[in-house]
Amino acid sequence: MLSRAADSLFWMARNIERAENNARLIDVNLESMLENVDPSGDSEGDNWEAILRINGYVQPYYQLYECCNTRDVMNFVTFSTDNPNSILQSVEIARENARTIRGIIPQELWELLNSFFLRMKEYPVKQWEMDSIHQFFQMVKDQSLHFQGIVDAIMFRGDAYTFIKLGKWLERAEKTARILDIYYHKKPISTLNPDIVEHHNWWSVLHMSSGYEAYLEQYRSYLKPEKVVEFLLFNETFPRSIRYCIEQLMLSFDDLEQGKIQPYNRSLYIELGKLHAYVKYGSVEEVIQIGAHEYFRMIQKSCNQIGQLIRKTYYLGEIDG
């Protein structure tokens, strides 16, 4: 496969995953603020700055806005053309990548991404209303799931399919690590019962990862930080856990290379193996011993390194953070 086609497949998938993740982050944060069990606790700005930190948007945001508030953050993360990773920009990038490889992907996939982009462009981005924005985020999530359904249902299991998977699983693993990193150290300020506030905090984490129902099925207990970390970091069957994502990356690498390790792919193989060992044989106790921030940052750094090595190994375009 030509490297430019592989690059388009990789970034098409990664940007659709990014758009969905951002839609879920904002939607859950809005719901969390509406259901705030202690209105005198965390401020509006603190809640929204956490979303910016998850995405690494803090510095770019404050270059454009003076303070952190609901409408400005939502505009920046959702519709801003000054933010290359906004939902609108991510969908446009995915659509443009799909346009260049229409002969490789199913026609249904191109039609979906084209209509998705047109729906985004038709949305009244400067006049959106708070009481209707939830339907917009639900549309973004539904379109992403539709995208994944077409890929899994009708795409030939060849190199094109595998590069789509590489983009999807890498983006998902890194975003889950960022969510855990920010919320593990987020200390809600409460004048009421701190246990209730902490419960609400971890409820948000699970919903941002679409893992609330799966978590309850696994643990059937009150939300505990250690159990949420264990579930989203080490669970081997939940599709948004970091371990599951990394194991899917390993399988995708094996599919591309047919199990053969050569000088040109050895560095990528080693980095994938190191991260896989961390999440396969790690434990919550080890996370606490090393330090949660250091552990999650290590995962983010390794994901970034894997992205760079994918670029180098398969001659793709630049990988952004």
Please provide a written account of the structure:
Helix 1 (3-34) runs antiparallel to helix 5 (87-100), helix 8 packs antiparallel against helix 15 (292-314) and helix 12 runs antiparallel to helix 13 (266-281). It is built from 15 helices and no strands. The protein has one domain (3-314). It is mostly helical. The longest helix has 32 residues, at 3-34. The two termini are 25 Å apart. It comes from Marinicrinis sediminis. Residues 1-314 form the DUF403 domain. This is Alpha-E domain-containing protein.
Q: What layout of secondary structure does this protein have?
A:
Layout: H1 3-34, H2 44-55, H3 58-62, H4 70-78, H5 87-100, H6 107-122, H7 133-154, H8 159-184, H9 194-208, H10 212-219, H11 225-234, H12 242-257, H13 266-281, H14 284-290, H15 292-314
Brief characterization of the structure:
With 321 residues, this protein is mainly alpha-helical. 72% of the residues lie in helices and 0% in strands.
